[in-house]
Design brief:
- Helix 5 packs antiparallel against helix 11 and helix 9 runs antiparallel to helix 10.
- The two termini are 19 Å apart.
- The protein has a domain of 91 residues: PDZ domain (Pdz3 Domain, Roll).
- A hairpin with a 2-residue loop joins strand 1 and strand 2.
- By secondary structure, it is α+β, with helices and mostly antiparallel strands.
- It is built from twelve helices and ten strands.
- Strands 5-4-6-7 form a four-stranded antiparallel sheet.
- One of its GO terms (cellular component) is membrane.
- It is found in: Membrane.
- It holds the Pfam family Peptidase_M50.
- GO terms for molecular function: metalloendopeptidase activity.
Length: 382
């Protein structure tokens, strides 16, 4: 039963974050008048499809992934879709395949392309199309967080201290009731979880605080926290303070949802920074196996934990795709910025070479991360 739950949950999460990403590319391409040859949910063989205004909408057999094939885009999916939309050029005039399930014949007018090729659109429109996928990932994270905050029974957790425990070390070293925590260790705190995350990253249970006290910004260097040990001898931090709750009005819910997306983005950037600085080991990277395992664990705790993990994954995907790496949307935007500044597109040969090399690097990294996942599963570390 747990395998079935994990499978369904993984399909739901992956399908949601990828479908919304591709929908972002799709809807902005349509708005910019670019020809979309196909919008597909899933990968592999086509189960059902329908052609409308020159775009084939399809559902495929493998319920993970999806793609948008744009006219004039250099990708395998786009080239295949172009061949399907121009059968005479691809196979000497044979009619398109209509063997998929539940497909009605479409008129020539419906099959006729309704837009321009991607490479004929202005540079700024192409950049918007590339950025729209990540943008929709952030929108999905915002909407899901708003649902989660609305559904929870507790009020929204604030950053204003309600009480500091008597004799608590944090109170003796600076914090007072009524303080509104603005930043910890120089990093701005958008939500209460930001405070906890920054305190978890401290190595000596000491942190520098910036608070708002009596309307004035006050710096509190070297705030210390009490610690305690569990039965295994592991040391834990004791906060020593409680905070106020915030009433869940529509405005407060939307504000908290937006700040929560920023919080998850902060986690991802901090993790990447820690990895590059050597604070975290590359052996800690997780691949698809680790992600599916985490999804299964979250699903076993309940739908709220699953949706919270979905937010982390969709924000992660959005940020990852914006990195200026040739194989990603961010890399494509860099090429477009160069074209916009110089007036000349980066030669296709250079773009293709860099993209292939980047894909090879990413694929190798994924294989390494998957090996780590399997090793942790075998040794029971996951």
């Amino acid at each position: 039963m747990s395998f079935i739950v994990t499978f369904i949950a993984a399909v739901f999460v992956f399908s949601a974050v990828i479908a919304i990403h591709e929908f972002g590319h799709f809807i902005v391409a349509k708005l910019c008048g670019v020809q979309v040859n196909e919008f597909s949910i899933g990968m592999g063989p086509v189960l059902c499809k329908r052609v409308r205004k020159g775009t084939q909408y399809s559902i495929r057999a493998l319920p993970v992934g999806g793609f948008v094939a744009l006219e004039g885009e250099e990708s395998p999916e786009s080239k295949q879709a172009e061949e399907r939309s121009n059968p005479s050029a691809a196979d000497g005039g044979s009619s398109p395949d209509r063997g998929a399930l539940g497909i009605a014949e479409t008129s020539p007018e419906e099959e006729k392309p309704a837009g321009i090729p991607l490479n004929e659109a202005p540079v700024w429109q192409r950049a918007l199309i590339m950025l729209a996928g990540a943008g929709m990932n952030f929108v999905l994270g915002f909407v899901v967080m708003a649902i989660l905050i609305t559904a929870q029974n507790e009020p929204i957790t604030s950053k204003v201290l309600y009480q500091v425990e008597e004799n608590a070390l944090c109170g003796q070293t600076g914090l007072q009731a009524g303080d509104k925590i603005l930043a910890v260790n120089g990093r701005r705190c958008f939500v209460a979880n930001d405070i906890l995350y920054e305190l978890m990253r401290t190595e000596d249970y000491t942190a520098d605080f910036t608070v708002l006290r009596d309307g004035k910004k006050v710096e509190l260097p070297g705030v210390q926290f009490d610690t305690w040990q569990d039965d295994k001898g592991e040391t834990h931090m004791s906060l020593g303070f409680t905070v106020y709750g915030i009433k869940k009005t529509p405005l407060n819910v939307l504000k908290e949802a937006g700040n929560s997306v920023l919080y998850y983005g902060r986690i991802i950037f901090a993790s990447l920074s820690d990895l590059l600085r050597g604070r975290e080991s590359i052996n800690d990277l997780s691949g698809p196996v680790g992600i599916v395992t985490a999804i299964g664990q979250a699903a076993s705790y309940g739908w709220q934990d699953l949706l919270e993990l979905l937010v982390l994954i969709t924000v992660n995907l959005g940020i990852f795709n914006l990195l200026p790496f040739p194989a990603l949307d961010g890399g494509k935007v860099v090429f477009l910025l160069i074209e916009g500044v110089t007036g000349h597109a980066v030669p296709e040969k250079i773009q293709s070479g860099l993209t292939v090399a980047a894909f090879a690097l990413l694929f190798g990294l994924m294989i390494f991360a998957t090996y780590n996942d399997i090793l942790r599963l075998v040794t029971g570390a996951m």
